[in-house]
Amino acid sequence: MRLFPIPLLSHVRGLVRRAPSPRMYAVPALACTNSTISHSEEQTKEGNFEVVKSLELNEVGVLRVLTTMRDDPYLALSFLKRIEGNEGASLPSVSAYAAVVRIVCSWSLDEKLSCLFVGLIRKGDQGRGFSFADLLNAVGEAEEGDEKLAFLLLSRVSSALVKAYAEIEMFEEAVYLFREIEELRWDADAGAYVVVVQALRRKGDSEGVEKLLSKLLSLETRRRHCFFYMDFIEGLCVNEMSLEAYTLLRPLRDADILVVDGSDLAVAYSRVIRGLCNEMKLEEAESALLDMEGCGIDPDVSLYSAVMEGHRKNMSFSKALRFIVDKGAKQGKRIINPVIASSILQCCCQMGKFSEAFDQFVEFRNRNIPLDRFCYNVAFEALIKLGRVDEAIKLFRGMICEGIAPDVVNYTTLIGGCCQQGRCSEAIDLVMEMEAKGRPPDIVTFNVLVGGFVRNAQNASGILKLMEERGVKPTSVTHKMVIQGLIVAGKIDEAEALYQSLDE
DNA sequence: ATAGGGTTAG
Predict the structure, then answer these.
(1) Pairwise CA distance, residues A213 & A218, whole Å
(2) pTM, whole model, 2 decimals?
(3) So what's the pLDDT on residue A58?
(4) HSE of A269, CA atoms in CB hemisphere, 13 A
(5) Predicted confidence (pLDDT) at residue A504 exceeds the cutoff of 90
(6) NCBIfam families attached here (predicted)?
(7) Does A366 reside within a domain?
(8) Residue A475: inside a domain
(9) Which candidate, A383, A386, A387, places its Cα nearest to that of A399?
(10) Of A250, A281, A312, which closes a domain?
Protein backbone atom coordinates (compact mmCIF):
# COMPACT_ATOMS: atom_id res chain seq x y z
CA MET A 1 0.00 0.00 0.00
CA ARG A 2 1.66 3.21 -1.13
CA LEU A 3 1.01 6.46 0.56
CA PHE A 4 1.68 8.52 -2.51
CA PRO A 5 2.92 7.74 -5.94
CA ILE A 6 6.57 8.43 -6.52
CA PRO A 7 7.59 6.78 -9.74
CA LEU A 8 10.89 5.31 -8.70
CA LEU A 9 11.31 1.67 -9.47
CA SER A 10 7.76 0.87 -10.49
CA HIS A 11 8.74 -0.72 -13.76
CA VAL A 12 12.22 -1.84 -12.99
CA ARG A 13 11.33 -5.47 -13.50
CA GLY A 14 10.16 -4.77 -16.99
CA LEU A 15 13.71 -4.45 -18.31
CA VAL A 16 12.94 -2.49 -21.43
CA ARG A 17 15.57 -2.38 -24.07
CA ARG A 18 15.96 0.74 -26.05
CA ALA A 19 17.94 1.46 -29.14
CA PRO A 20 20.54 4.15 -28.66
CA SER A 21 19.32 7.48 -29.88
CA PRO A 22 21.19 9.22 -32.65
CA ARG A 23 22.06 12.16 -30.41
CA MET A 24 25.42 13.73 -30.82
CA TYR A 25 27.67 14.74 -27.96
CA ALA A 26 30.22 17.40 -28.30
CA VAL A 27 33.07 16.69 -25.91
CA PRO A 28 34.79 19.89 -25.01
CA ALA A 29 38.53 20.05 -24.77
CA LEU A 30 40.20 19.56 -21.46
CA ALA A 31 41.11 23.21 -21.06
CA CYS A 32 38.02 23.86 -18.97
CA THR A 33 38.97 21.98 -15.84
CA ASN A 34 36.50 20.25 -13.64
CA SER A 35 36.42 21.62 -10.13
CA THR A 36 35.36 18.38 -8.48
CA ILE A 37 38.46 16.58 -9.65
CA SER A 38 41.66 17.43 -7.89
CA HIS A 39 44.53 18.91 -9.77
CA SER A 40 46.88 16.00 -9.61
CA GLU A 41 44.14 13.60 -10.60
CA GLU A 42 43.29 15.82 -13.49
CA GLN A 43 46.83 15.95 -14.69
CA THR A 44 47.34 12.24 -14.74
CA LYS A 45 44.16 11.82 -16.72
CA GLU A 46 45.08 14.41 -19.24
CA GLY A 47 46.64 11.90 -21.56
CA ASN A 48 43.49 9.82 -21.77
CA PHE A 49 41.41 12.81 -22.65
CA GLU A 50 43.51 13.47 -25.69
CA VAL A 51 41.67 10.64 -27.36
CA VAL A 52 38.34 12.36 -27.19
CA LYS A 53 39.44 15.92 -27.22
CA SER A 54 37.22 18.14 -29.29
CA LEU A 55 35.56 15.19 -30.93
CA GLU A 56 31.96 14.96 -31.85
CA LEU A 57 30.76 11.69 -30.41
CA ASN A 58 27.43 10.03 -30.80
CA GLU A 59 25.98 7.89 -28.07
CA VAL A 60 27.72 4.78 -29.28
CA GLY A 61 30.95 6.71 -29.34
CA VAL A 62 30.46 7.87 -25.77
CA LEU A 63 29.79 4.34 -24.61
CA ARG A 64 32.83 3.12 -26.45
CA VAL A 65 34.99 5.74 -24.76
CA LEU A 66 33.52 4.78 -21.41
CA THR A 67 34.46 1.14 -21.87
CA THR A 68 38.07 2.29 -22.06
CA MET A 69 37.65 4.01 -18.71
CA ARG A 70 36.69 0.94 -16.74
CA ASP A 71 39.83 1.11 -14.65
CA ASP A 72 39.49 4.77 -13.93
CA PRO A 73 36.27 5.79 -12.20
CA TYR A 74 37.42 9.36 -11.68
CA LEU A 75 38.11 9.76 -15.36
CA ALA A 76 34.74 8.27 -16.22
CA LEU A 77 33.02 10.67 -13.84
CA SER A 78 34.77 13.70 -15.20
CA PHE A 79 34.10 12.59 -18.74
CA LEU A 80 30.42 12.39 -17.88
CA LYS A 81 30.51 15.77 -16.20
CA ARG A 82 32.06 17.22 -19.27
CA ILE A 83 29.24 16.00 -21.45
CA GLU A 84 26.69 17.21 -18.89
CA GLY A 85 28.28 20.62 -18.78
CA ASN A 86 28.17 21.07 -22.49
CA GLU A 87 25.63 23.84 -22.98
CA GLY A 88 23.08 23.36 -25.68
CA ALA A 89 24.07 19.81 -26.53
CA SER A 90 22.19 16.70 -25.55
CA LEU A 91 22.59 15.33 -22.06
CA PRO A 92 24.25 11.97 -21.60
CA SER A 93 21.95 9.07 -22.28
CA VAL A 94 20.70 6.69 -19.64
CA SER A 95 23.17 4.10 -20.95
CA ALA A 96 26.05 6.49 -20.49
CA TYR A 97 25.03 7.07 -16.86
CA ALA A 98 24.56 3.36 -16.37
CA ALA A 99 28.04 2.70 -17.70
CA VAL A 100 29.57 5.25 -15.35
CA VAL A 101 27.53 3.96 -12.43
CA ARG A 102 28.82 0.47 -13.08
CA ILE A 103 32.40 1.68 -13.22
CA VAL A 104 32.13 3.75 -10.05
CA CYS A 105 30.33 0.92 -8.32
CA SER A 106 32.94 -1.67 -9.25
CA TRP A 107 35.49 0.51 -7.49
CA SER A 108 33.33 0.69 -4.36
CA LEU A 109 33.19 4.46 -4.53
CA ASP A 110 29.77 4.57 -2.94
CA GLU A 111 30.12 8.17 -1.92
CA LYS A 112 30.91 9.25 -5.45
CA LEU A 113 27.89 7.33 -6.54
CA SER A 114 25.64 9.14 -4.09
CA CYS A 115 27.17 12.39 -5.24
CA LEU A 116 26.33 11.62 -8.82
CA PHE A 117 22.80 10.73 -7.79
CA VAL A 118 22.33 13.94 -5.86
CA GLY A 119 23.05 15.79 -9.09
CA LEU A 120 20.64 13.58 -11.01
CA ILE A 121 17.87 13.96 -8.45
CA ARG A 122 18.19 17.72 -8.65
CA LYS A 123 17.80 17.60 -12.42
CA GLY A 124 14.45 15.85 -12.09
CA ASP A 125 12.95 13.30 -14.48
CA GLN A 126 12.41 15.96 -17.11
CA GLY A 127 15.90 17.34 -16.89
CA ARG A 128 17.47 13.91 -17.11
CA GLY A 129 15.23 12.58 -19.81
CA PHE A 130 14.93 9.28 -17.97
CA SER A 131 13.69 7.97 -14.66
CA PHE A 132 15.70 6.20 -11.99
CA ALA A 133 13.87 3.04 -12.87
CA ASP A 134 15.26 3.43 -16.39
CA LEU A 135 18.71 3.90 -14.97
CA LEU A 136 18.50 0.86 -12.72
CA ASN A 137 17.17 -1.13 -15.63
CA ALA A 138 20.12 -0.10 -17.69
CA VAL A 139 22.53 -0.96 -14.88
CA GLY A 140 20.93 -4.37 -14.36
CA GLU A 141 20.63 -5.11 -18.04
CA ALA A 142 24.35 -5.43 -18.52
CA GLU A 143 24.42 -8.28 -16.02
CA GLU A 144 21.43 -10.13 -17.29
CA GLY A 145 23.35 -13.35 -17.56
CA ASP A 146 24.62 -13.17 -14.02
CA GLU A 147 21.78 -12.89 -11.58
CA LYS A 148 23.95 -12.76 -8.52
CA LEU A 149 26.11 -9.97 -9.85
CA ALA A 150 23.05 -8.04 -10.96
CA PHE A 151 21.60 -8.41 -7.49
CA LEU A 152 24.76 -7.11 -5.83
CA LEU A 153 25.07 -4.28 -8.27
CA LEU A 154 21.47 -3.19 -8.02
CA SER A 155 21.51 -3.48 -4.24
CA ARG A 156 24.49 -1.25 -4.08
CA VAL A 157 23.30 1.29 -6.62
CA SER A 158 19.84 1.58 -5.14
CA SER A 159 21.34 1.96 -1.66
CA ALA A 160 23.43 4.83 -2.92
CA LEU A 161 20.27 6.38 -4.30
CA VAL A 162 18.52 6.06 -0.93
CA LYS A 163 21.45 7.85 0.69
CA ALA A 164 21.40 10.51 -2.00
CA TYR A 165 17.74 11.24 -1.29
CA ALA A 166 18.45 11.46 2.41
CA GLU A 167 21.40 13.72 1.82
CA ILE A 168 19.21 16.35 0.23
CA GLU A 169 16.53 15.79 2.83
CA MET A 170 14.07 14.07 0.54
CA PHE A 171 13.27 11.63 3.31
CA GLU A 172 9.91 10.50 2.01
CA GLU A 173 11.51 9.47 -1.23
CA ALA A 174 14.37 7.75 0.59
CA VAL A 175 11.96 5.67 2.66
CA TYR A 176 9.75 4.97 -0.30
CA LEU A 177 12.65 3.76 -2.38
CA PHE A 178 13.85 1.65 0.52
CA ARG A 179 10.46 -0.05 0.68
CA GLU A 180 10.68 -0.79 -3.00
CA ILE A 181 14.11 -2.27 -2.56
CA GLU A 182 12.67 -4.51 0.14
CA GLU A 183 9.86 -5.58 -2.17
CA LEU A 184 12.29 -6.38 -4.93
CA ARG A 185 14.25 -8.41 -2.37
CA TRP A 186 17.47 -6.59 -2.96
CA ASP A 187 19.75 -5.92 -0.01
CA ALA A 188 20.01 -2.30 1.00
CA ASP A 189 23.36 -1.64 2.63
CA ALA A 190 23.94 -0.56 6.21
CA GLY A 191 24.22 3.10 5.27
CA ALA A 192 20.83 3.01 3.59
CA TYR A 193 19.32 1.36 6.67
CA VAL A 194 20.80 4.09 8.82
CA VAL A 195 19.30 6.93 6.82
CA VAL A 196 15.94 5.19 6.71
CA VAL A 197 15.88 4.76 10.49
CA GLN A 198 16.84 8.41 10.73
CA ALA A 199 14.06 9.42 8.38
CA LEU A 200 11.47 7.37 10.25
CA ARG A 201 12.57 8.76 13.57
CA ARG A 202 12.38 12.26 12.22
CA LYS A 203 8.77 11.59 11.33
CA GLY A 204 8.20 10.25 14.83
CA ASP A 205 7.42 6.84 13.39
CA SER A 206 8.93 4.70 16.14
CA GLU A 207 6.66 1.85 15.16
CA GLY A 208 8.21 1.94 11.70
CA VAL A 209 11.67 1.76 13.23
CA GLU A 210 10.67 -1.16 15.39
CA LYS A 211 9.21 -3.00 12.42
CA LEU A 212 12.28 -2.38 10.36
CA LEU A 213 14.59 -3.69 13.06
CA SER A 214 12.50 -6.75 13.79
CA LYS A 215 12.22 -7.55 10.11
CA LEU A 216 15.97 -7.38 9.89
CA LEU A 217 16.25 -9.86 12.73
CA SER A 218 13.48 -12.26 11.83
CA LEU A 219 14.73 -15.66 10.83
CA GLU A 220 13.30 -15.79 7.35
CA THR A 221 14.75 -12.47 6.26
CA ARG A 222 17.95 -12.72 8.17
CA ARG A 223 20.59 -13.40 5.59
CA ARG A 224 23.03 -10.68 6.44
CA HIS A 225 26.66 -10.95 7.18
CA CYS A 226 28.09 -9.84 10.48
CA PHE A 227 29.77 -6.90 8.72
CA PHE A 228 26.41 -5.49 7.82
CA TYR A 229 25.26 -5.44 11.42
CA MET A 230 28.55 -3.99 12.60
CA ASP A 231 28.29 -1.21 10.06
CA PHE A 232 24.65 -0.65 10.87
CA ILE A 233 25.38 -0.38 14.58
CA GLU A 234 28.25 1.98 13.96
CA GLY A 235 26.16 4.13 11.63
CA LEU A 236 23.34 4.32 14.16
CA CYS A 237 25.73 5.32 16.94
CA VAL A 238 27.51 8.05 15.04
CA ASN A 239 24.15 9.47 14.02
CA GLU A 240 22.93 9.69 17.58
CA MET A 241 20.69 6.68 17.44
CA SER A 242 22.58 4.58 19.95
CA LEU A 243 19.43 3.41 21.65
CA GLU A 244 18.27 1.84 18.41
CA ALA A 245 21.71 0.30 18.07
CA TYR A 246 21.39 -1.13 21.56
CA THR A 247 17.97 -2.61 20.78
CA LEU A 248 19.54 -4.27 17.78
CA LEU A 249 22.59 -5.45 19.66
CA ARG A 250 20.90 -7.64 22.22
CA PRO A 251 19.05 -9.97 19.86
CA LEU A 252 22.14 -10.14 17.66
CA ARG A 253 24.14 -11.20 20.65
CA ASP A 254 21.58 -13.80 21.68
CA ALA A 255 21.56 -15.21 18.17
CA ASP A 256 25.36 -15.40 18.14
CA ILE A 257 25.57 -13.29 15.04
CA LEU A 258 28.39 -10.97 16.03
CA VAL A 259 31.11 -13.55 16.21
CA VAL A 260 33.21 -13.30 13.10
CA ASP A 261 36.48 -12.85 14.90
CA GLY A 262 35.46 -13.07 18.50
CA SER A 263 35.96 -9.42 19.30
CA ASP A 264 33.00 -8.16 17.28
CA LEU A 265 30.60 -8.29 20.18
CA ALA A 266 33.04 -6.31 22.31
CA VAL A 267 33.50 -3.76 19.54
CA ALA A 268 29.75 -3.42 19.07
CA TYR A 269 29.20 -2.95 22.80
CA SER A 270 31.95 -0.36 22.91
CA ARG A 271 30.42 1.62 20.11
CA VAL A 272 26.98 1.50 21.65
CA ILE A 273 28.16 2.49 25.12
CA ARG A 274 30.28 5.30 23.79
CA GLY A 275 27.38 6.47 21.66
CA LEU A 276 25.01 6.40 24.63
CA CYS A 277 27.48 8.46 26.64
CA ASN A 278 27.79 10.99 23.84
CA GLU A 279 24.03 11.30 23.82
CA MET A 280 24.12 11.65 27.61
CA LYS A 281 21.94 8.57 28.02
CA LEU A 282 23.95 7.54 31.02
CA GLU A 283 21.57 5.17 32.70
CA GLU A 284 21.30 3.22 29.49
CA ALA A 285 25.06 3.36 29.11
CA GLU A 286 25.53 1.96 32.58
CA SER A 287 23.09 -0.84 32.00
CA ALA A 288 24.70 -1.65 28.65
CA LEU A 289 28.00 -1.79 30.47
CA LEU A 290 26.61 -4.24 33.03
CA ASP A 291 25.11 -6.18 30.18
CA MET A 292 28.48 -6.33 28.50
CA GLU A 293 30.19 -7.49 31.67
CA GLY A 294 27.43 -10.06 32.05
CA CYS A 295 28.48 -11.51 28.69
CA GLY A 296 31.89 -12.12 30.13
CA ILE A 297 33.50 -9.32 28.21
CA ASP A 298 35.98 -7.22 30.08
CA PRO A 299 35.29 -3.63 29.06
CA ASP A 300 38.11 -1.34 28.17
CA VAL A 301 38.71 1.23 30.91
CA SER A 302 37.99 3.96 28.36
CA LEU A 303 34.34 2.91 28.60
CA TYR A 304 34.43 3.56 32.32
CA SER A 305 35.90 6.95 31.68
CA ALA A 306 33.24 7.68 29.06
CA VAL A 307 30.45 7.02 31.57
CA MET A 308 32.25 8.92 34.27
CA GLU A 309 32.82 11.91 32.01
CA GLY A 310 29.14 11.85 31.14
CA HIS A 311 28.18 12.15 34.78
CA ARG A 312 30.72 14.89 35.29
CA LYS A 313 29.45 16.87 32.32
CA ASN A 314 26.02 16.44 33.80
CA MET A 315 27.38 18.05 36.96
CA SER A 316 26.66 14.83 38.84
CA PHE A 317 30.05 14.83 40.48
CA SER A 318 29.37 12.48 43.33
CA LYS A 319 27.63 10.10 40.97
CA ALA A 320 30.71 10.19 38.75
CA LEU A 321 33.04 9.51 41.66
CA ARG A 322 30.84 6.78 43.10
CA PHE A 323 30.64 5.10 39.71
CA ILE A 324 34.38 4.89 39.29
CA VAL A 325 35.03 3.81 42.87
CA ASP A 326 32.45 1.02 42.54
CA LYS A 327 33.90 -0.15 39.24
CA GLY A 328 37.39 -0.11 40.67
CA ALA A 329 36.33 -2.15 43.67
CA LYS A 330 34.47 -4.65 41.53
CA GLN A 331 37.20 -5.07 38.95
CA GLY A 332 39.87 -5.78 41.51
CA LYS A 333 42.42 -4.38 39.10
CA ARG A 334 43.81 -0.97 38.41
CA ILE A 335 41.34 0.95 36.31
CA ILE A 336 42.68 4.42 36.95
CA ASN A 337 44.41 5.67 33.86
CA PRO A 338 45.37 9.31 33.21
CA VAL A 339 41.97 10.10 31.73
CA ILE A 340 40.10 8.76 34.71
CA ALA A 341 42.54 10.41 37.08
CA SER A 342 42.02 13.81 35.52
CA SER A 343 38.30 13.25 35.58
CA ILE A 344 38.40 12.47 39.30
CA LEU A 345 40.54 15.54 40.01
CA GLN A 346 38.23 17.70 38.01
CA CYS A 347 35.17 16.45 39.83
CA CYS A 348 36.80 17.57 43.07
CA CYS A 349 37.64 20.98 41.64
CA GLN A 350 34.19 21.48 40.19
CA MET A 351 32.74 20.73 43.60
CA GLY A 352 34.98 23.44 44.96
CA LYS A 353 37.06 20.92 46.91
CA PHE A 354 40.45 22.19 45.83
CA SER A 355 42.58 20.86 48.65
CA GLU A 356 40.97 17.43 48.28
CA ALA A 357 41.79 17.62 44.58
CA PHE A 358 45.42 18.32 45.26
CA ASP A 359 45.63 15.67 47.97
CA GLN A 360 44.14 13.21 45.53
CA PHE A 361 46.74 14.21 42.96
CA VAL A 362 49.53 13.57 45.43
CA GLU A 363 48.00 10.25 46.33
CA PHE A 364 47.85 9.22 42.68
CA ARG A 365 51.47 10.17 42.32
CA ASN A 366 52.44 8.15 45.37
CA ARG A 367 50.56 5.17 44.00
CA ASN A 368 52.56 5.48 40.78
CA ILE A 369 49.50 6.06 38.70
CA PRO A 370 50.70 7.55 35.44
CA LEU A 371 49.76 11.22 35.31
CA ASP A 372 49.89 13.34 32.22
CA ARG A 373 49.70 17.07 31.50
CA PHE A 374 45.91 16.98 31.78
CA CYS A 375 46.12 15.70 35.35
CA TYR A 376 48.87 18.16 36.17
CA ASN A 377 46.76 20.95 34.80
CA VAL A 378 43.95 20.19 37.19
CA ALA A 379 46.47 20.08 40.02
CA PHE A 380 47.77 23.51 38.96
CA GLU A 381 44.25 24.81 38.93
CA ALA A 382 43.60 23.44 42.42
CA LEU A 383 46.76 25.00 43.84
CA ILE A 384 46.06 28.31 42.16
CA LYS A 385 42.52 28.39 43.51
CA LEU A 386 44.03 27.76 46.94
CA GLY A 387 46.32 30.72 46.38
CA ARG A 388 49.38 28.45 46.33
CA VAL A 389 50.77 29.76 43.06
CA ASP A 390 54.40 29.18 44.01
CA GLU A 391 53.68 25.52 44.58
CA ALA A 392 51.88 25.39 41.26
CA ILE A 393 54.94 26.78 39.49
CA LYS A 394 57.17 24.35 41.37
CA LEU A 395 54.94 21.47 40.35
CA PHE A 396 55.04 22.74 36.78
CA ARG A 397 58.84 22.66 36.79
CA GLY A 398 58.73 19.23 38.31
CA MET A 399 56.40 18.08 35.55
CA ILE A 400 58.87 19.24 32.91
CA CYS A 401 61.65 17.38 34.75
CA GLU A 402 59.48 14.25 34.59
CA GLY A 403 59.68 14.57 30.84
CA ILE A 404 56.15 15.80 30.31
CA ALA A 405 56.13 18.64 27.79
CA PRO A 406 53.79 21.46 28.82
CA ASP A 407 51.30 22.69 26.25
CA VAL A 408 49.51 25.99 25.70
CA VAL A 409 46.81 25.13 28.19
CA ASN A 410 49.30 24.37 30.97
CA TYR A 411 51.02 27.67 30.38
CA THR A 412 47.71 29.50 30.22
CA THR A 413 46.62 28.04 33.54
CA LEU A 414 49.82 29.22 35.20
CA ILE A 415 49.70 32.60 33.54
CA GLY A 416 46.21 33.00 34.96
CA GLY A 417 47.56 32.06 38.36
CA CYS A 418 50.34 34.62 38.19
CA CYS A 419 47.92 37.33 37.12
CA GLN A 420 45.59 36.40 39.93
CA GLN A 421 48.39 37.10 42.39
CA GLY A 422 49.28 40.35 40.68
CA ARG A 423 52.54 38.85 39.46
CA CYS A 424 52.23 40.28 35.98
CA SER A 425 55.90 40.24 35.08
CA GLU A 426 56.12 36.53 35.86
CA ALA A 427 53.15 36.05 33.60
CA ILE A 428 55.03 37.81 30.81
CA ASP A 429 58.10 35.65 31.50
CA LEU A 430 55.95 32.59 30.93
CA VAL A 431 54.68 34.02 27.65
CA MET A 432 58.26 34.55 26.52
CA GLU A 433 59.11 31.00 27.56
CA MET A 434 56.18 29.73 25.48
CA GLU A 435 57.40 31.51 22.42
CA ALA A 436 60.95 30.29 22.97
CA LYS A 437 59.67 26.73 23.21
CA GLY A 438 57.70 27.03 20.02
CA ARG A 439 54.31 26.84 21.77
CA PRO A 440 53.04 30.32 21.02
CA PRO A 441 50.23 31.76 23.14
CA ASP A 442 46.77 31.52 21.60
CA ILE A 443 43.70 33.70 21.95
CA VAL A 444 42.80 32.21 25.35
CA THR A 445 46.28 32.89 26.72
CA PHE A 446 46.08 36.47 25.56
CA ASN A 447 42.60 36.92 26.97
CA VAL A 448 43.77 35.69 30.35
CA LEU A 449 46.82 37.91 30.18
CA VAL A 450 44.99 41.03 29.06
CA GLY A 451 42.27 40.54 31.66
CA GLY A 452 44.88 39.97 34.36
CA PHE A 453 46.82 43.07 33.44
CA VAL A 454 43.79 45.30 33.40
CA ARG A 455 42.51 43.92 36.70
CA ASN A 456 45.84 44.74 38.25
CA ALA A 457 45.65 48.28 36.93
CA GLN A 458 48.54 47.60 34.57
CA ASN A 459 48.74 49.07 31.13
CA ALA A 460 47.48 46.43 28.74
CA SER A 461 48.28 48.23 25.52
CA GLY A 462 51.60 46.39 25.27
CA ILE A 463 49.76 43.06 25.40
CA LEU A 464 47.31 44.17 22.74
CA LYS A 465 50.22 45.25 20.59
CA LEU A 466 51.94 41.90 21.09
CA MET A 467 48.70 40.18 20.08
CA GLU A 468 48.56 42.16 16.91
CA GLU A 469 52.20 41.44 16.12
CA ARG A 470 51.55 37.72 16.58
CA GLY A 471 48.50 37.87 14.38
CA VAL A 472 46.07 36.90 17.16
CA LYS A 473 42.82 38.80 16.74
CA PRO A 474 40.93 40.02 19.82
CA THR A 475 37.43 38.62 20.13
CA SER A 476 34.33 39.64 22.04
CA VAL A 477 35.69 37.65 24.98
CA THR A 478 38.83 39.79 24.93
CA HIS A 479 36.72 42.93 25.15
CA LYS A 480 34.59 41.45 27.86
CA MET A 481 37.68 40.57 29.88
CA VAL A 482 39.07 44.06 29.50
CA ILE A 483 35.81 45.72 30.53
CA GLN A 484 35.41 43.46 33.54
CA GLY A 485 39.04 44.01 34.45
CA LEU A 486 38.54 47.75 34.36
CA ILE A 487 35.54 47.42 36.64
CA VAL A 488 37.53 45.27 39.09
CA ALA A 489 40.30 47.90 38.98
CA GLY A 490 37.71 50.54 39.83
CA LYS A 491 38.02 52.30 36.49
CA ILE A 492 34.30 52.47 35.90
CA ASP A 493 34.44 55.42 33.52
CA GLU A 494 37.00 53.76 31.30
CA ALA A 495 34.97 50.56 31.33
CA GLU A 496 31.87 52.48 30.33
CA ALA A 497 33.70 54.37 27.58
CA LEU A 498 35.07 51.13 26.14
CA TYR A 499 31.66 49.54 26.35
CA GLN A 500 30.13 52.44 24.46
CA SER A 501 32.81 52.41 21.78
CA LEU A 502 32.31 48.68 21.22
CA ASP A 503 28.61 49.17 20.80
CA GLU A 504 29.12 51.22 17.68
C1' DA B 1 39.35 -1.53 15.56
C1' DT B 2 37.40 0.42 21.09
C1' DA B 3 39.87 6.94 21.36
C1' DG B 4 38.63 9.46 26.24
C1' DG B 5 40.13 14.45 29.50
C1' DG B 6 42.42 20.01 31.09
C1' DT B 7 42.87 26.76 30.21
C1' DT B 8 39.05 32.76 29.56
C1' DA B 9 33.84 34.38 30.73
C1' DG B 10 35.38 35.83 38.66
Answers:
(1) 9
(2) 0.84
(3) 83
(4) 28
(5) no
(6) PPR
(7) no
(8) no
(9) A383
(10) A281
Q: Which residue, counting CA atoms, is nearest to the C1' of nucleotide B6? A: A374
Cβ A448 vs Cβ A432: under 8 Å? no
Chain B positions with an atom below 7 A of a protein C-beta are 1-10
Q: Which residue is nearest to nucleotide B7 (CA to C1')?
A: A409
Q: Which residue is nearest to the C1' sugar atom of B9, using CA?
A: A477
Instruction: Note the CA–C1' distance, A346 to B10, in angstroms.
Output: 18
A469 lies in some domain: no
Q: Are residues A155 and A252 in the same domain?
A: no
Residues A110 and A227 in one domain: no
Q: What is the pLDDT of residue A29?
A: 34
Neighbours of A147 (CB within 10 A): 10
Shared domain check, A149 and A60: yes
Nearest-CA residue to the C1' of B1? A267
CA distance A106 to A73: 9
Do A133 and A8 form a contact (C-beta atoms < 8 A)? yes
Give me the number of domains chain A comprises.
Answer: 2
A86 with A202, same domain: the answer is: no
The nucleotide minimizing the C1' distance to residue A411's CA is B7
Name the domain boundary from A232, A265, A281: A281
**Is position A479 within any domain?**
no
Nearest nt to the CA of A349 via C1' is B6
pLDDT reading at A71 higher than 60 = yes
Q: How far is CA A334 from the centre of its chain?
A: 32
Nearest of A354, A272, A257, A349 to residue A306 by alpha carbon? A272
| Shared domain check, A219 and A73 | no
Beta-strand runs (E) in A42-181: 56-58
* Protein CA at A401 to nucleotide C1' at B5, angstroms: 22
Indicate if the pLDDT at residue A125 is higher than 60. Answer: yes
Torsion angle in degrees (nearest 10) through CA of A372, A385, A436, A474: 110
How far is residue A365's CA from residue A383's CA, in Å, rounded to a whole number? 16
Nucleotide B7 C1' to residue A483 CA (A): 20
Separation of CA A456 and C1' B7 in angstroms? 20
Indicate if A51 and A169 belong to the same structural domain. Answer: yes
Residue type, A60: V
Beta carbons of A327 and A311 less than 8 angstroms apart:
no
Q: Which nucleotide is nearest to A412 (CA to C1')?
A: B7
Residue with CA nearest to B10's C1' atom: A484
pLDDT level of residue A22 (50, 70, 90 thresholds): very low
Residue A265 contacts residue A295 (beta carbons within 8 Å): yes
Mean pLDDT computed over A356-377: 96
Q: Are residues A175 and A85 in the same domain?
A: yes
Domain hosting A234: range is 189-281
